[in-house]
Design goal:
Oligomer: single chain
CATH topology: Rossmann fold
Shape: elongated
Helix content: 25-40%
Structural class: alpha/beta
Distance between the termini: 81 Å
Length: about 190
């Protein structure tokens, strides 16, 4: 019986130690769904993403080990954002190029968070994404700011897959807002 108790305590201590050092890595791969248009027919575009997030993480899952349950990026978010931009711009008939281009599009990621303020348990999660889009055509520049936020409630600590899904949904929705902005479309039509 004493051996069983020792094994039980050791196993429990090991589980606690494992929980204490479990940062969540999320691969961010936003997607956009843009209706076909011929706005950019005959023009080239260079798209890029810039990570302007303060610090190295997106937040914490909260709970007893909030300081070690950090949410971190597992991939190059700059190239992931650029790929999503290219996906949308090609739907508008632009031809993507690696440098230069008739149009330069930069998505500055200013906010991407998945953070629980609860330090004893994870029940509430504040999440959001914000980008500043900068589009330059023939010396004229358009700036657009787009944001998406969410407040989730969980009875249990979310899995890495749930966190990744939420973060991707938020960033995708934020980029989608840019492509639905009539002011951006008008700017491109006016200057091309």
């Amino acid at each position: 019986m004493k051996t069983f108790a020792t094994l039980l305590v050791t196993g429990f201590a090991f589980m606690l130690a494992a929980c204490a050092h479990s940062p969540v890595q999320v691969a961010v791969k936003p997607q956009v769904n843009v209706a076909p248009d011929n706005i950019g027919a005959g023009y080239t575009v260079h798209a890029s993403g810039v990570n302007q997030l303060p610090g190295g993480g997106l937040g914490s899952l909260g709970g007893i080990y909030a300081d070690s349950s950090n949410v971190r990026l597992a991939n190059d978010i700059e190239s992931s954002m650029a790929s999503a931009l290219v996906q949308g711009l090609e739907a508008w008939s632009f031809r993507s190029v690696d440098a230069g281009g008739d149009v330069q599009v930069v998505a500055n990621l200013t906010d991407l968070r998945y953070d629980s303020p609860n330090k004893l348990y994870t029940t509430k999660v504040n999440s959001g994404a914000s980008i500043q889009l900068q589009v330059t055509v023939k010396g004229a520049t358009f700036y657009g700011n787009y944001s998406t936020s969410g407040n989730d409630r969980n009875l249990i600590k979310p899995s890495a897959e749930e966190v990744e899904s939420t973060v991707n949904r938020l960033l995708s929705a934020t980029l989608q807002r840019a492509f639905e902005d009539e002011k951006l479309k008008s700017f491109l039509r006016q200057h091309l």
